[in-house]
């Protein structure tokens, strides 16, 4: 059975942060692996994606996603994506068109779902450290505004992502963020030796609020620390496994 995490912040807009439960994949991908870029069997990934589409009440052809590249690029959709064509390189999608389920894939990076329920405009973003730093969240808000959303009415929920206690980084990583903005130091805690612990969702929420959205929250689920429910790139790397599954998060009007 599928397990779907939802956020009251996005109600009544239909959405879901899907865990790995309820899928057809096996082995290291066991469960609901929706990553077409993984080495999982393509036909099994399509079965998983079809289950997600069904849960969202749309045909599989209306489950829209992009070729994620850790960028601040946003795609605006006015119709379902053409079948058989390469997905655009981007990391966020927005639409005002009912019946299109916007989807992003993650495995430690943040899935962020956006909704202006007043204007009837939604968005979805994939926000790892680079995308967050480069402004993908703010760019998603801006793209929604171009469709007629009002930022004070935009509500954002960040789904399962790697938490600060699990996100250990080196001094050069900290330096990159602090060089960009000295205030970013607040998102790092002392780890072992010269290591630091990075609060990715804390940074994302700060940036969203600074950009003026009406509400932003994190579901507080950590992908790294819960292997039964979530795929995690970092956990897979630590275990020396060859590949990893991708979680899907989606929202529709």
From TrEMBL:
Pfam families: Cu-oxidase_4 (PF02578)
Sorted UniProt keywords: Hydrolase, Metal-binding, Transferase, Zinc
Claim: Transferase is one of the keywords in the record: yes
Reaction(s) the record says it catalyses: adenosine + H2O + H(+) = inosine + NH4(+); inosine + phosphate = alpha-D-ribose 1-phosphate + hypoxanthine; adenosine + phosphate = alpha-D-ribose 1-phosphate + adenine; S-methyl-5'-thioadenosine + phosphate = 5-(methylsulfanyl)-alpha-D-ribose 1-phosphate + adenine
Protein's recorded name: Purine nucleoside phosphorylase
InterPro entries given in the database record: Cu_polyphenol_OxRdtase, Cu_polyphenol_OxRdtase_sf, Cytotoxic_necrot_fac-like_cat
Zinc in keyword set: yes
UniProt family annotation: Belongs to the purine nucleoside phosphorylase YfiH/LACC1 family.
GO molecular function: copper ion binding; hydrolase activity; S-methyl-5-thioadenosine phosphorylase activity
């Amino acid at each position: 059975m599928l397990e779907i995490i939802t956020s009251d912040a996005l109600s009544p807009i239909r959405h879901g942060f899907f865990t790995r439960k309820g899928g057809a994949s096996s082995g290291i991908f066991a469960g609901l692996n929706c990553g077409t870029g993984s080495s999982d069997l393509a036909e099994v990934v399509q079965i998983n994606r079809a289950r997600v589409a069904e849960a969202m009440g749309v045909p599989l052809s209306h489950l829209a996603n992009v070729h994620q590249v850790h960028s601040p690029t946003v795609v605006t959709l006015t119709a379902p994506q053409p079948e058989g064509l390469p997905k655009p390189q981007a990391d966020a999608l927005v639409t005002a068109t009912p019946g299109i389920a916007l989807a992003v894939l993650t495995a430690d990076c943040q899935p962020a779902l956006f909704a202006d329920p007043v204007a009837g405009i939604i968005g979805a973003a994939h926000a790892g450290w680079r995308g967050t730093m480069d402004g993908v969240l703010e760019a998603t808000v801006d793209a929604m505004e171009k469709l007629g959303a009002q930022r004070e009415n935009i509500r954002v929920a960040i789904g399962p992502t790697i938490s600060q206690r699990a996100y250990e980084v080196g001094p050069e990583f900290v330096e990159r963020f602090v060089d960009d903005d000295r205030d970013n130091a607040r998102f790092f805690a002392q780890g072992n030796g010269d290591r630091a612990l990075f609060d990715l969702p804390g940074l994302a929420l700060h940036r969203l609020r600074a950009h003026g959205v009406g509400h932003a929250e994190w579901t507080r689920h950590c992908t790294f620390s819960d292997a039964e429910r979530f795929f995690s790139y970092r956990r897979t790397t630590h275990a020396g496994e060859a590949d990893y599954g991708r979680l899907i998060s989606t929202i529709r009007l």
